Amino acid sequence: MKRPGRRPRGRASRDDILASARALFSANGWEGTSIRAIARGADVDPGVVLHYFGDKEGVFKEAMAIPMRPGQAQAEVVAGPRAQIGRRLVEFFLRIWEDPEQREQMTGLVRGAMTSPHVADLLRGALTERILAPVAEHLDAPDGDLRMSLCSSHLIGLGIERYVLRLEPLASLGGEEVADLVGPTLQRYLTGEIAGASGRARS
After folding, report:
1. Most buried in the list 64, 72, 177, 183, measured by CB within 10 Å?
2. Angstrom distance (rounded) from CA 20 to CA 23
């Protein structure tokens, strides 16, 4: 009679490992998640996880990557009146969080960023590469790096308070209400006057 045990490498599912990693990173953050815990959740040996992903960072990057079509941010944020681009950026960000699958990944990223500077860098990089940089390319505004940093800090803070800490009344506001409140601030970051921006641009 064959003894029960963990699946051998050949039968291990990368999807199972990624699903285990998403759940653990989302619930416990970067520091609270280990390769052994991910392996237990996927019912495989830790060596199988390392075989597929190399190390903890490799699992994290793939498990928590924000699924997004090429050009999606440009199509959904840039297209439309320039005067509403801040609102469209907020709405785009909220749609990512409101999607059940992507919310787990975003929660894991944000929880990790709250305890690990390394993960915070990964989150900022993901936001910049996938969302903010494509938007910035179409703005032709001075001091673009500063503007993108301001947008990134505001969106990350919004995600933490609304979806991770669930602070009220922000957590219970409808998406349209959040866009009404936050959109004008991002609009100013993206297209308006920013104190010190002109001086930085001339330096």
Report:
1. 64
2. 5
Question: Rounded to whole angstroms, how far apart are CA atoms 151 and 87?
Answer: 12
Q: What is the pLDDT of residue 201?
A: 43
pTM, two decimal places: 0.72
What DSSP line would sit under 47-100, residue for residue? Answer: HHHHHHHSSHHHHHHHHS-----TTHHIIIIISS-GGGHHHHHHHHHHHHHHSH
Q: Which residues contact 187 (CB under 8 A, 6 or more apart)?
A: 83, 84, 85, 86, 87
For residues 62-70, average pLDDT: 73
List the structure tokens of 26.
Answer: 């989302």
User: CA 159, CA 90: separation in Å to the nearest integer?
Assistant: 11
Higher pLDDT, 163 or 66: 163
In the block, which residue shows the tokens 């190390």?
A: 55
Question: What is the total residue count of the chain?
Answer: 203
Domains, the chain:
9-63 (1.10.10.60), 72-193 (1.10.357.10)
pLDDT tens-digit readout, 115-145: 778 778 877 777 777 777 878 877 777 787 7
